[in-house]
């Protein structure tokens, strides 16, 4: 991972072999990020996306076992009830035939790189378990 601060935003480049969610969570913990928004483009060797099944109240995995272009990742970093960062991101991935697949980014193995723009905001936001949906939602 390489990082540069530029005009109120962090520019984060993940390198080949890094797992995106794990790397961003670790970076956010090091930086003591209380809330941030993020955007990314790049490529991945493989990924697991998820579709939230409201009936089962859990993510149904969508395995992506091929090289893909990361057309877009959007998301945020907030804090769990224990104060550790939670990276919540959605991705649209492009396949070699031009088709796409999208969903909640559960894991993504970077290859050759992922360029992430992170804007940290001044006030922390916490996520709390919501008994109605089964999700951890912002506690506003």
CATH superfamily: Hypothetical protein, similar to alpha- acetolactate decarboxylase, domain 2
Q: Structural class from helices and strands? A: mainly beta
Count of distinct structural domains: 1
Give the fraction of residues assigned to helices: under 10%
Regarding quaternary structure, what we see is single chain
* Named CATH topology: 60s Ribosomal Protein L30, Chain: A
Indicate the proportion of strand residues: over 45%
Question: Major sheet, described briefly?
Answer: 7 strands, antiparallel
Radius of gyration: 15 Å
Tell me, what's the shape? flat
Q: With helices defined by DSSP (H or I, 4 residues minimum), what is the helix count?
A: 1
**N-C termini distance:** 32 Å
Number of distinct beta strands? 9
**SSE pattern:** EEHEEEEEEE
CATH top-level class: Alpha Beta
CATH A-level architecture: 2-Layer Sandwich
Q: What average pLDDT do the residues reach?
A: 97
Taking pLDDT < 50 over at least 5 consecutive residues as the criterion, the unreliable ranges are: none
